[in-house]
Amino acid sequence: MVKIEVAREETELIMQIKSGQTDALRKLCFLYRPLIANIKKKYHLRSYDNQDWDQDAMIICYLAVKDFDPKKGNFASYYKVRLVNHANTLLRREMAYRRKAWAKAISFEAAATKGMNPIRRPETFLPEVPLSIKLAELVNKLSILEVTALLIILGLCQSEQIIKDWQILPMTLVRARSRLLQKARLILLDSV
Questions:
Q1: Residue 139 and residue 183 in contact, taking contact as beta carbons nearer than 8 Å
Q2: Cβ–Cβ contacts within 10 Å for residue 47, how many?
Q3: Mean pLDDT by 10-residue block, N- to C-terminus, for the chain (192 residues)?
Q4: By the 8 A CB rule, do 58 and 95 touch?
Q5: In Å, how far are 156, 164, 178 from 159, measured between CA atoms?
Q6: What's the pLDDT at 2?
Q7: N or C, fewer C-beta in 10 Å, the chain?
């Protein structure tokens, strides 16, 4: 008897959500809070807290209601599959190879409480001379080809067009870029 009442309430809420009543979405998510809590426990994501899970569960519920076809089964199983698939996607993203270092990282506060000494970077000092003066000094020491290489680095010119217009070899432009970077290091980082 209880299952019939829940199914009837679920159907009414789905119809209300499809007609645009947002309050019905909250009620439907409230009906499925045990399912949502179960998935929260099953999938631990480092960057997700309860509010993130609740928000995602509500979004998935809304999308599931919009796509749900009662002829193909019941809503509860459809919603569960959608929610589990979403959790798996989030888990795959978090466990991706390029995020492995991030997954093992701890905060400085956590390191301090565990008695760990974090690796310290050498302190850098801002130059006393304003950067605009240093940039002007750099540009004054560049050849025309090196200035052109700087414009290419900044995305203001295309290297293919410069090579064609100036009738130079691509390696000439590569060497100019290398000289530009050497001069930039000497001038901009010298006073640090």
A1: no
A2: 11
A3: 62 86 87 90 82 91 89 87 92 74 71 71 55 82 90 89 90 93 86 49
A4: no
A5: 10, 9, 14
A6: 47
A7: N
> CA torsion 79→84→90→93, rounded to 10°?
-130
Q: What is the DSSP letter of 115?
A: T
pTM attached to this predicted model: 0.51
Which of 150, 157, 137, 151 minimizes the C-alpha distance to 178?
Answer: 150
Can you say how many angstroms the Cα of residue 126 is from the centroid of all Cα atoms in its chain? Answer: 30
Spatial separation of the C-alpha atoms in residues 82 and 60, rounded to whole Å: 7
Contact indicator for 111, 118 with CB cutoff of 8 Å: yes
Q: DSSP letters of 5-45?
A: HHHHHHHHHHHHHHTT-HHHHHHHHHHTHHHHHHHHHH---
| pLDDT given for residue 6 in this prediction | 56
Residue count (the chain): 192
What is the C-alpha to C-alpha distance for residues 76 and 63, in angstroms, rounded to an integer?
Answer: 13
* Residue 43 near residue 91 (C-beta atoms within 8 A): yes
pLDDT at 84: 94
